Amino acid sequence: MNIFIAILGLAFLILIHEAGHFFAAIWVGMRPRRFYIGFPPALMKTTRNGIEYGIGVVPLGGYVKIPGMHRPAPSDADVHFGRALQERPELAAPLQRLKRALASGDDAAADAAVEELLRLAGDDPPPGFSRGIQEILDGLSPQAYWRQDTWRRIVAIIAGPATNFFLAVVLFACLFLAGGGKATNTVGTVVAKTPAAAVGLKSGDQIVTVNGKPVGPTDISTAISGSKGKPVTLLVRRGQTFVTLGPVHPKVLDDTDRLRLGFSLRGEQLGVAASAWQSLKLTGVVTKEIGKSLGRLVHGEGRKDISSPVGITQTLDHSASQGIQEYLWVLGLISLSLALMNMLPLLPLDGGHIAFSIVEGIRGRAVAREVYERVSVVGIALVLFLFVIGISNDVGRLGG
Fold it and tell me: Could you tell me which of 227, 225, 221 has the C-alpha nearest to residue 207?
């Protein structure tokens, strides 16, 4: 059950990322062609106001299609109409005119060639023909992404990472508001099937002493982990009575190698303003640490900090078993990480599209399609490199 909740959480983060792109694109005048929950092909779909909404067969995340991410190129015509040309040789002449028009940037000639292709195809077009025509028309339409002002393009792209970033800040603020402030001696959550649960510790118990020594909130963890595996005894206040629990042996419960009993302490409840401020501070700290981690990777260090979707799901799975608050903390951290990683200036990541939009805005004209493709190859290679490192780390952790 926990693994399902973990996968659902990761899919939700991807879905809201795509939803950010979708609604921002509509707001700036780029009407997306598709918005799917999950990935195509579609299990079910409907079209409203020219937008195809659907539920995809692959039940992870979401999918948004913004028209004309790049100006159509002659090579696109080969890809879209290669099979159709084999079945209908009479399409060759207008197809060549379309390719020449795309190469020269003559939109009027391209439209005329498309009309001729449609006329020759008739009511029984060859396989893939209609989809190819739609792709070309989308790329030439006034709503095409590459035709938009620089600010509109940036807004549509940055909205995805911004949505993940905003979700992280809101989650952290809500968790601080619910009691994630300064720690107290009061037990908040007791994890099932741990020494704390076995000895009878309960949420709401106030820890007074550990092994007979009075402890404050910052001393409790140190006293337990410093026992070096020897049994510890807790004196807790439960309501109006005092209860002695133990002796009980602390255990290593996660990959930090610290001895624990399996409970968390309740924090002092913060106000709305204080919770929001603490959330922003935490976001800043995590952002700084992620930046340091990427910097260490450039210098050949920090490999162990990288994780793949396998490891992310495993982390969410573990946090789900620790309780809802732990799960939401981890979900917020992963959402923030997704936002920051997507802002790296590499194609096909969002940061790469933003960087190219700025460059094209300064130049006053589009970057050649060949440049996009070469830079994308480098970006994809780097992303795959990080994925391979992450999956090797995760396999190593799973295998002990």
Answer: 221
